[in-house]
Write a structure and sequence with these properties.
The protein is mostly helical. The protein has a domain of 52 residues. The chain is built from two helices and no strands. The N and C termini lie far apart (66 Å). This is PspA domain-containing protein.
Length: 79
């Protein structure tokens, strides 16, 4: 298909002779990216700063919900 397939930083075998990525190559890259994202998420949730931010966000959400309930009650809209 291509006269000169694009140069790839990936190892040999990732592209066919026509310059198209193989299914195995695409699957491997997706799995690598997914694993990296999962690992980063695990690290983020383990950091004290992340825990603190999450707890603060939860407290703000609860305070907001409580305040909204008070306003609805004062207006006679409580359910």
């Amino acid at each position: 298909m291509f006269d000169n397939p694009p140069e790839s930083p990936l190892p040999a075998g990732y592209y066919t002779d026509d310059g198209v990525p193989t299914f195995d190559a695409v699957r491997e890259r997706i799995e690598q990216r997914s694993a990296t994202a999962d690992g980063q998420e695990a690290l983020d949730t383990e950091l004290p700063a992340e825990r603190s931010a999450r707890e603060e966000r939860e407290a703000l959400d609860k305070a907001g919900a409580d305040r909204l309930a008070q306003i609805r009650k004062s207006m006679g809209l409580d359910r």
